[in-house]
């Protein structure tokens, strides 16, 4: 994962490093001129530098495009080996400049370690090749005394040790940092999932608390909250407000004769009828077993009576009747309306309940308007 994450950065950095290295290597042509003057040796050196610069620039371009270092490590190793070979070749071509060459090898070795990121094995092998090759060239082509070779070797060993451990430490730190970041990412992902899970649980709980499981209508508590708000707004606006209670007649008989499953279907069908025949702004709730309650804002009790009668008619025509033949499905509805600003929801429900009770006693299958509302009229 770490390799995948840093791959684009490695590609970019390797590309830039190579371009800079190629240009710096090319610039040393000035020093060639200073050491060897005009002549075949200079032309040879210039030709070699040109080949190296062009190859490095081409490789920088290729690495920048397709230099995925976890799959094409050799592509990153190749320019280092070309540069190393060129530096080694300068010794036989310019043997008198050995002290300058030593400095160049030390700088190149450090540059390999510090500027080529995340490729410790590649860099270490290329450095080893550069250093051993340089020492061999110093012995064979520059006639260097043994004690000087020993001193150069010690210097190069030290350079390699410093470069190697610096890069090792850098890589370890980067990997640790990446591991911590990854851990944090995983925790954040888990946290996001946990929050989403809790939110969905909360929504489920809210829906369970607010909705009646069988009919999908507002549960009693939620209905009371919404109806209370509507009533307060109506009283504030001095607009009419009605409420009716609907009770299924002889519902026990349906349960007893056709089973509770059938009873449930009847309740669901009545709830659907209510939803379909009332306005969106009306609030419908399931008040108890086979009892429904409806709050009708902006509705005078006389209009509520018409709405209730229409609803009563629709219930009697319900298709569910086919499943319960010989049973006449009817409802009794008690209506209450706002009388004054002091009327509260509980008082309204009590009035509607009394009207409903009167309807039941009067023979059921009827719509009864509360006496208080009738008296007021
Ligand atoms: N299937 C079903 N039955 C329910 C549910 N809640 C309440 N009941 C039943 O509804 C019946 C109501 O019976 P009663 O209160 O005697 O009323 P009724 O038979 O409708 O008679 P009246 O209201 O006087 O016309 C009871 O048998 C309850 O068990 C429910 O969710 N599903």
UniProtKB/TrEMBL annotation:
<dbReference type="GO" id="GO:0052621">
    <property type="term" value="F:diguanylate cyclase activity"/>
</dbReference>
<keyword id="KW-1133">Transmembrane helix</keyword>
<dbReference type="InterPro" id="IPR000160">
    <property type="entry name" value="GGDEF_dom"/>
</dbReference>
<dbReference type="InterPro" id="IPR029787">
    <property type="entry name" value="Nucleotide_cyclase"/>
</dbReference>
<dbReference type="GO" id="GO:1902201">
    <property type="term" value="P:negative regulation of bacterial-type flagellum-dependent cell motility"/>
</dbReference>
<keyword id="KW-0812">Transmembrane</keyword>
<dbReference type="Pfam" id="PF00990">
    <property type="entry name" value="GGDEF"/>
</dbReference>
<feature type="domain" description="GGDEF">
    <location>
        <begin position="239"/>
        <end position="372"/>
    </location>
</feature>
<feature type="transmembrane region" description="Helical">
    <location>
        <begin position="123"/>
        <end position="142"/>
    </location>
</feature>
<dbReference type="InterPro" id="IPR043128">
    <property type="entry name" value="Rev_trsase/Diguanyl_cyclase"/>
</dbReference>
<feature type="transmembrane region" description="Helical">
    <location>
        <begin position="74"/>
        <end position="92"/>
    </location>
</feature>
<feature type="transmembrane region" description="Helical">
    <location>
        <begin position="148"/>
        <end position="168"/>
    </location>
</feature>
<protein>
    <recommendedName>
        <fullName>diguanylate cyclase</fullName>
        <ecNumber>2.7.7.65</ecNumber>
    </recommendedName>
</protein>
<feature type="transmembrane region" description="Helical">
    <location>
        <begin position="12"/>
        <end position="30"/>
    </location>
</feature>
<dbReference type="InterPro" id="IPR050469">
    <property type="entry name" value="Diguanylate_Cyclase"/>
</dbReference>
<dbReference type="GO" id="GO:0043709">
    <property type="term" value="P:cell adhesion involved in single-species biofilm formation"/>
</dbReference>
<feature type="transmembrane region" description="Helical">
    <location>
        <begin position="42"/>
        <end position="62"/>
    </location>
</feature>
<dbReference type="GO" id="GO:0005886">
    <property type="term" value="C:plasma membrane"/>
</dbReference>
<keyword id="KW-0472">Membrane</keyword>
């Amino acid at each position: 994962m770490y390799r995948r994450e840093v791959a684009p950065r490695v590609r970019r950095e390797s590309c830039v490093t190579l371009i800079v290295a190629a240009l710096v290597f090319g610039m040393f042509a000035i020093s060639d001129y200073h050491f060897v003057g005009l002549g075949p040796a200079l032309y040879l050196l210039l030709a070699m530098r040109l080949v190296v610069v062009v190859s490095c620039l081409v490789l920088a371009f290729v690495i920048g495009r397709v230099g995925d270092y976890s799959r094409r490590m050799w592509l990153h190793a190749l320019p280092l080996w070309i540069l190393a070979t060129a530096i080694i070749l300068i010794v036989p071509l310019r043997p008198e400049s050995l002290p300058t060459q030593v400095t160049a090898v030390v700088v190149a070795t450090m540059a390999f370690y510090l500027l080529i990121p995340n490729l410790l094995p590649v860099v270490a092998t290329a450095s080893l090749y550069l250093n051993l090759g340089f020492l061999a060239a110093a012995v064979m082509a520059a006639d260097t005394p043994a004690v000087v070779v020993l001193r150069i070797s010690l210097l190069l060993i030290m350079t390699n040790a410093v470069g190697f451990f610096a890069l090792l430490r850098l890589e370890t730190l980067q990997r640790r940092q990446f591991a911590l970041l990854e851990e944090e990412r995983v925790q954040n992902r888990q946290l996001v999932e946990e929050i989403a899970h809790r939110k969905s649980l909360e929504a489920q709980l809210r829906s369970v608390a607010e909705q009646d499981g069988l009919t999908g209508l507002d549960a009693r508590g939620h209905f009371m909250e919404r109806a209370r708000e509507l009533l307060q707004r109506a009283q504030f606006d001095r607009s009419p407000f009605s409420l009716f209670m609907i009770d299924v007649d002889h519902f026990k008989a349906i349960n007893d004769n056709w089973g509770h499953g059938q009873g449930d279907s009847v309740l669901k069908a009545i709830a659907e009828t209510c939803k379909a025949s009332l306005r969106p702004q009306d609030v419908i709730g399931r008040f108890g077993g086979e009892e429904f309650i409806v709050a009708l804002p902006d509705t005078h009790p006389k209009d509520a009576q018409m709405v209730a009668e229409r609803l009563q008619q629709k219930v009697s025509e319900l298709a569910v009747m086919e499943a319960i033949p010989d049973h006449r499905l009817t409802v009794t509805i008690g209506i209450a309306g706002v009388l004054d600003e002091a009327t509260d929801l509980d008082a309204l429900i009590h009035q509607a309940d009394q009207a409903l009770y009167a309807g039941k006693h009067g023979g059921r299958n009827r719509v009864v308007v509360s006496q208080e509302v009738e008296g007021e009229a």
